[in-house]
Specification:
mainly alpha; about 0% strand; about 170 residues; 10 helices
Length: about 170
């Protein structure tokens, strides 16, 4: 069968319809709905359905969708894990768009701020903002992935002098 532009378009629509059907079907397994919720190509109907999914992992996955506004994001009842590991993430071969990073760093959503804290080339204003973030996960992720913050944390943890109980890092004499 020859692939005409119309046939290719029909198949693309079929894939989108299948994705929507899986996202909107409550009998679709939770792990499948969660993977679908992370997809950037979700339509508004799928995002709305997954935003009220009974599973908190699915709601959290869709809550970081790039097409959501801060108001839509805030309307989702998501849970942010505090017991997950915070690791060093190597710098990607293709840097993230600085505007996307800034949007994530300024978001009210802790998971998006954690994503921004992974970026190694953060501008100084975002480093300062994230270093004082209310979410421990953001601060730890920043320390793990931003060299100045990691150096500061390591220096403070390695220092055992008498003024260790001061609220800030030790001064270097």
């Amino acid at each position: 069968m020859v692939k005409t532009p119309e046939r290719i378009g029909e198949e693309a629509d079929l894939a989108a319809r299948r994705l929507a059907g899986l996202a909107l079907n409550p009998s679709t397994p939770q792990d499948v709905r969660q993977r679908i919720a992370y997809r950037a190509d979700l339509g508004p109907a799928e995002r709305r359905a997954l935003a009220v999914d009974p599973d908190p992992k699915v709601r959290r996955a869709v809550s970081v969708h790039p097409a959501l506004s801060e108001e839509e994001r805030a309307a989702i009842d998501y849970e942010v894990p505090t017991d997950c590991g915070f690791h060093h993430h190597p710098a990607p071969s293709v840097p993230r768009d600085p505007e996307d990073v800034r949007r994530d760093a300024l978001s009210a959503h802790p998971m998006l701020r954690r994503r921004a804290a992974r970026v190694h080339e953060l501008p100084p204003d975002l480093v300062a903002r994230l270093a004082d973030d209310e979410d421990l996960g953001v601060r730890v992720t920043l320390a793990q992935n931003h060299p100045p913050a990691a150096l500061l944390l390591r220096s403070f943890l390695e220092y055992t002098g008498s003024d260790r109980t001061r609220p800030g890092p030790p001064s270097i004499r």
